[in-house]
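The protein record minuted underneath.
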Amino acid sequence: MRVAIPLFQGRVSPYFGASDEVIIAEMRGGSWKEEVYSLKAQTPMELAWELLGFGVEVVVCGGIQNYCKEWLIQKGIKLVDNQKGAIKPLLRRLLGEENPRKGGGHHGKRL
C-alpha cells in the first residue's frame, strides 16, 4: 500500500491544497518506508493530479473540497479525510495499530 499525506508545517495539512510537501509511506521489503516530496501543485485539483502521478492508493488529509474528493475516489484512490495532527501517530494507526475512521459521510467504515 502506498499512502500520501499532504503536509503543512510538518503535520497533516488542515486544508487539501494548502501544502507544498507530501509524505509518502509504502511497504518495502517487509517494513514501511517514508519519504517527503516537494509539490508543484498550485491548486487543490493540481494536487489531486500530482498525487495520482505518485501512484498512491490512499490519501490521508484534513478538509478536502467535494470535487477533489469525488475525483480521487473515481480514480480508485481511497480517501481518509478529516484527519489532523502529527504524522507518526497517524501512520501507526493506518498501519494497523488502530485504523482511523474514514471521514466525509462514510459512516465510520474503516480502511
In short: Residues 17 and 44 are 4 Å apart (CA to CA). The chain has three helices and six strands.
